[in-house]
Structures are given as structure tokens and as C-alpha cells.
Design a protein that fits this description.
The complex is a heterodimer of chains A (about 300) and B (about 325). Chain A is mainly alpha-helical. Chain A is built from 11 helices and no strands. Chain A has 2 domains: about 15-70, no CATH class; about 95-300, MetI-like (MetI-like fold, Orthogonal Bundle), CATH 1.10.3720.10. Chain A has helices at about 1-30, 45-55, 60-70, 85-120, 125-140, 145-155, 175-200, 205-210, 215-255, 260-270, 270-300. The longest helix of chain A has about 40 residues, at about 215-255. Chain B is an all-alpha fold and about 325 residues long. The two termini of chain B are about 30 Å apart. The chains are: A mainly alpha (about 300), B mainly alpha (about 325). Chain B: InterPro entries: BP-dependent_transpt_permease, MetI-like, MetI-like_sf, OppC_N. Chain B: Its main location: membrane.
Chain lengths: ~300, ~325
């Protein structure tokens, strides 16, 4: 197990370097980084040249990348162009997005698995067909459409929620945005649970459990569910990174000032430091979540042993 | 040397008979009689995976329904004037946000443009982006993934790590960064971006499929008989590894259409005066209180389109994956 963890950690390094380098290059393509410093006007050429020299932007890209990464590992993500350290922006933005992601994950776990169990145990019945159709519709409708429609119905037409979230973004306000963020994954979790349950229902150990006279609820909870949920748990774990990166659309609809909002502002204002810093952290979250999922696999399924 | 698979001719022959057999297949779906009109082909002819799958698909109402929707979408994106006589760029501010009225069934949007005409013309952007991006991703992904899976070695290791790198970057985020500088008003930057970030998905599938197919006995036999690597790859492995690629690509087509709309909604995909559902939904969202119809019609069209492609992909997968039979 220890050797496996070390190998996985080593494998993460090239992926992390590659992904951050790719983002670094993309942001460099994004346009003149000092243009954003002069606001709407064109920069005076002499000022632009001096700014570039001060910020080290006259050096080749690979050298800029190395300097940047060196600083990142000492906890310095640079300064946004309004003079605020990027870490300060992160300190206000990440808690909001983490709360939003927690709400979304809770929806996936509670609603997704419940629906999956319901349909998996009643395959072919009307409730199964109905839920399956509903998941297909949810998967097909893009998140931003789901979000706008829910905002229109719940926020504007019926007045159940406030259409836009306050800067504090407490858990209570994030229920509907969290549902929107979770919607597509929720549908996948439902389908995955259903398929996995239906497959395992025919397995020998379930037949044994029934044959030795266990009550049905015990067969389902102790034997069937425990094994069927392994792929679901790994899906949800891998989804954490995707949800945080995908929150940009949901945050825009409900005006939530989280990671997506800061990134969007950074991109619109060509604030390269903000963009690279936030994306670097998101990539790290994605990689660590995936590593944890792989390790969890061994804990959940005793047949898998990492030597 | 016995051929385990039929060459592509079988598929195209089946494809050509398809249109004529539609009515017969519908009847067969109702009757569900084995050996009916949709039953086995001429006796003595070997049945390939493809002819089997096609036989299944012809009787599948989900496949027929989604194929009809897609056919209709392709038709109106080629010739929008078939079902509308209006011009999507002719707008009358005096009529802004007005509801449905004779001659304008979907009402008007915030700029006074006819929502029906714009919804019809919006199909073209979605279908073009979806089809071109999928073709690009499928070709690039299956060539890279196929070669890596076939030859293995260092190239394969590098490619696998490279796909990991691309998977670690959130797609919408990458789109925002890369497309925010583009000023061009065509679909091509969007298509290019999708190919750039989409190929690893197909390459992974193609690599796995090629590795599985490579171990088959007939590949060993062909190798023993002295066939060249190119011949083995093209004649023996590719026809048997292409099915999963087609399935994933069909489903991906739906998601690319959704992604184009999402990027256009965020303001970095297509930009006005292009006509696209994403642009229209984005433009309608501030008027959501007064003119919800301007939001609902393009959203509905978008949802039906994506749904059609995803269900088509589902049906094709069910037909091509023998384990599910």
C-alpha cells in the first residue's frame, strides 16, 4: 500500500506540471498581460516596457513558469492587478465554492443514491421508467439552462428563494444553486447506482444471503448495497474536482462570489495572476481527489490489494 | 484465411437500404415477430456485428425517434428557409418582448427579433459545431489512441500521461481562457478548442479498444502469415475497435452542442451577430421576468437536440455491445 501511494504521488508530478504549464501557456496566449493594468486605455509604450520588466514578463515563458512555480511552493501566488494578493482573493472565494460543492455532493449522495436504489430494486416498473426518463432529460439539458429555469420558477415566478445569493453565501442560500450544480452528476449517480445494484442482485452472495433466511432489508443494506456502492463512491469522489471547476456557470447564474466568479473576473480583466493561481489550486484539488478515490477503492473492495 | 469481420461494405449496404426499410422496421417493432420483415438477411451470408446492430436499431423506437429529430435538425440547418421565411437579423425594437401573435408564434425577444426565426436559424451553429468537433475529435483521438495502443512503448506512455494532463483541466475554464482572446466570429475557434480539449477522451477509448483487439487470435494469425503492421491495424484491428469510438463520439456530439451553448452563454463562444441558441438564451436571461418565452424556446430546442444525440448514442451502444443483449 505504501509503495503504491508513493508511486501514485510520483505519477502526479508530471501531470501537475503539465496541466499548470498548459494553463500558463494558454494564459500567455490570452493576450498582453500588462494591457489589463492600464484599464480601458492603451498603455503608454514606455510604461508598458517598464511594467513588463518589473513583473519579469520580458523573460522567456519557461523562465516565467519556473519562477512562478517556485513562488507557489512557498505559498506566494502573486499579486492581482488591483494590488490584492491572490491568496487573499482565494481566502474569500474558496470557502464559498467549497460550501456550494458540499451542498452539491450531499444532493448526489442522498438523492442520487436513494433514487438509484429505488429504481434498481424496481427494475421495469413505472417508477423505474419514470426516473430513468427524468435522468435522461436532466443530462440533456445544459446546466446553465437548468439553472436559469429554476431561477425563473423558484426565484421569480413563485418567490420561494431569492434569485441572487448574498455575498455571505450561507448554506441555506446555496440549496438551489447546489442542486443546479449537482444536477447532471446526480442523474449519473442515479443511473450508476441502478445499474450496479441490478448487476449485483444476481450475484451468488446475495442468493446465499436470501437462502439463509435473512430479512430482505438486511440483505439489501448489509450485502447488496455495500458492494454496489463502490463504483458510485469513486464516481462521486472524482466528481469533487469537476464540480469545483464547473461551478463557474452556476456561480454566474446565481451571482455567487466564489472561485468561478473570481476566475471569470480574472479572465475578463486579463488578470493573469488570478487565473493561473486559481486554476493551479483547482488542478491540485482534482489530482488529490482522484488519488484519494483510488486509495478508497482498496479500503472498500477487499479483493483489490495494492502491493 | 477466414475473415472474422465483414469489411465496411456491409455497413454502407445496410445504410442504403435503411431509408426504404423504415416503414417495414416500424411494423416489425409493433409485431415483434422473429423472422419478420426486419429479420435475418439472405441465408448463408455471414452476419457481422454491424448487420446485427443495424437489425436491432431498425426496430428500436428510441433510435428511430432520435434519428428523425436529428434528420430534421440537419435539414433545417442546411435550409432554414424550409420552415421560416423571416430573417433572424431583422428586428423591430418597437415589438421588443412582445408575446406570441399571428405570424410570430414564439413572440419577440428583447431586441424585437422574431424568436421563432432565430430559434430555427440557431440550429445551424449547434449542428455545425457538434458535427465538426466530433469529427475532429474522433479522427485525432482514434489515430493517436490507436497508434499508441498498437505500438505501445514510450509513445504510449507519453500519450497516457498527456491525456491525464488534459483531463485535469476543467473544460469550461479552458474554454474561457483560450476563447476569450478570439475575436473571430465564426464557429471554427470553438470547434478547434473542442478538438484540442476533447481528443483525450476518444484516444483513451480507442487505445483500450485496440489493445483488446490486438490480443485476438485472428490478429496473431495475420501476424504469423506475415501481414505488415499497417495491414493488421487497418484491416483486422480497426474494424473491430471502431465500435466503442462511434458510441462515445455520438454521445459526445450531444455534449459538444451543450458546451457550445454554455460557452456562448458565458460570452466566449459564438458572438452576435452570429445566431446561436446559447447567445439567445444569454441575451434573454436579463428579461426573464417580462419575456420568459424568449428564454424558453431556444432552451427547449437546445435540450431536445442534446437529448436526441444522447439517446441515439445510447441506442447505438445497446445495439453494438453484445454483452447487453
Amino acid at each position: 500500500m505504501g509503495r503504491y501511494v508513493v508511486r501514485r504521488l510520483l505519477q502526479m508530478i508530471p501531470v501537475f506540471v503539465g496541466a499548470t504549464l498548459l494553463i500558463f501557456l494558454m494564459v500567455n496566449v490570452m493576450g498582453d498581460p500588462v494591457a489589463g493594468l492600464c484599464g480601458e486605455r492603451q498603455c503608454d509604450p514606455a510604461t508598458a516596457a517598464r511594467l513588463k520588466r518589473d513583473l519579469g514578463l520580458d523573460k522567456p515563458v519557461w523562465q516565467q513558469y519556473l519562477t512562478y512555480m517556485g513562488k507557489v511552493f512557498t505559498g506566494d501566488f502573486g499579486t492581482a492587478f488591483n494590488g490584492q494578493p491572490v491568496t487573499e482573493l482565494m481566502a474569500t472565494a474558496f470557502p464559498v465554492t467549497v460550501r456550494l460543492t458540499i451542498v452539491a455532493i450531499l444532493f448526489e449522495v442522498v438523492v442520487g443514491i436513494a433514487l438509484g436504489v429505488l429504481t434498481g430494486l424496481r427494475r421495469g416498473r413505472p417508477v423505474d421508467t419514470g426516473v430513468l426518463l427524468a435522468t435522461l432529460v436532466v443530462i440533456s439539458v445544459p446546466t446553465f439552462v437548468t439553472g436559469l429555469l429554476l431561477q425563473l420558477l423558484l426565484g421569480v415566478a413563485w418567490g420561494w428563494i431569492r434569485p441572487s445569493v448574498s455575498p455571505a453565501a450561507a448554506f441555506g442560500e446555496l440549496i438551489v444553486p447546489g442542486l443546479v450544480l449537482a444536477s447532471v452528476s446526480l442523474a449519473y449517480v442515479t443511473r450508476l447506482t441502478r445499474t450496479s445494484l441490478a448487476e449485483n442482485r444476481r450475484s451468488d452472495y446475495v442468493r446465499t444471503a436470501i437462502a439463509k433466511g435473512l430479512p430482505p432489508h438486511r440483505v439489501i443494506t448489509r450485502h447488496l448495497l455495500r458492494n454496489s456502492l463502490i463504483p458510485v463512491v469513486t464516481f462521486i469522489g472524482a466528481d469533487i474536482g469537476a464540480l469545483m471547476g464547473g461551478a463557474i456557470v452556476t456561480e454566474r447564474i446565481f451571482n455567487i462570489h466564489g472561485v468561478g466568479y473570481q476566475l471569470y473576473q480574472g479572465i475578463v480583466r486579463q488578470n493573469t495572476q488570478t487565473v493561473v493561481g486559481f486554476v493551479t489550486v483547482l488542478v491540485l484539488v482534482f489530482l488529490i481527489a482522484n488519488l484519494l478515490v483510488d486509495l478508497l477503492y482498496a479500503v472498500l473492495d477487499p479483493r483489490i490489494r495494492y502491493a | 484465411m477466414p475473415e472474422q469481420h465483414e469489411p465496411d461494405g456491409a455497413v454502407s449496404a445496410a445504410g442504403m437500404g435503411g431509408a426504404m426499410d423504415l416503414a417495414a422496421a416500424e411494423a416489425a417493432t409493433l409485431e415483434r415477430t422473429p423472422g419478420g420483415p426486419g429479420g435475418a438477411g439472405p441465408r448463408g451470408r455471414p452476419r457481422s456485428l454491424w448487420s446485427d446492430a443495424w437489425r436491432d436499431l431498425r426496430r428500436n423506437p428510441v433510435f428511430l425517434g432520435s434519428a428523425l429529430v436529428i434528420l430534421f435538425l440537419v435539414l433545417i440547418s442546411l435550409w432554414p428557409s424550409l420552415i421560416t421565411s423571416g430573417n433572424p437579423l431583422t428586428c423591430d425594437l418597437a415589438k421588443a418582448q412582445e408575446g406570441s401573435q399571428p405570424g410570430h408564434p414564439f413572440g419577440f425577444d428583447g431586441q424585437g427579433c422574431d424568436v421563432y426565426t432565430r430559434t430555427v436559424y440557431g440550429a445551424r451553429a449547434s449542428v455545425t459545431v457538434g458535427v465538426c468537433a466530433t469529427l475532429g475529435v474522433a479522427v485525432l483521438g482514434s489515430v493517436l489512441g490507436g497508434l499508441a495502443g498498437f505500438f505501445g512503448g514510450l509513445g504510449d506512455a507519453v500519450l497516457s500521461r498527456l491525456t491525464d494532463v488534459f483531463f485535469a483541466i476543467p473544460v469550461v475554464l479552458g474554454g474561457l481562457v483560450l476563447l476569450s482572446v478570439v475575436t473571430s466570429n465564426t464557429v471554427w475557434p470553438v470547434v478547434g478548442f473542442m478538438v484540442l480539449l476533447g481528443w483525450p477522451q476518444i484516444s483513451r477509448i480507442a487505445r483500450g479498444a485496440v489493445i483488446t483487439a490486438r490480443q485476438n487470435d485472428y490478429v496473431q494469425a495475420a501476424r504469423a502469415l506475415g501481414a505488415s503492421p499497417a495491414r493488421i491495424l487497418l484491416r483486422h484491428i480497426a474494424p473491430n475497435a471502431v465500435a466503442p469510438v462511434i458510441v462515445v463520439a455520438t454521445i459526445a456530439l450531444g455534449t459538444y452542442i451543450a458546451l457550445e451553448a454554455t460557452l456562448s452563454y458565458l460570452g466566449v463562444g459564438l458572438k452576435p451577430p452570429s445566431v446561436s441558441w446559447g447567445i439567445d438564451i444569454s441575451a434573454a436571461s436579463p428579461y426573464i421576468r417580462n419575456a420568459p418565452h424568449a428564454l424558453l424556446w431556444p432552451s427547449g430546442a437546445l435540450a431536445i437536440t442534446v437529448l436526441a444525440f444522447i439517446m441515439l448514442g445510447d441506442a447505438v451502444r445497446d445495439a453494438l455491445d453484445p454483452r447487453l443483449r
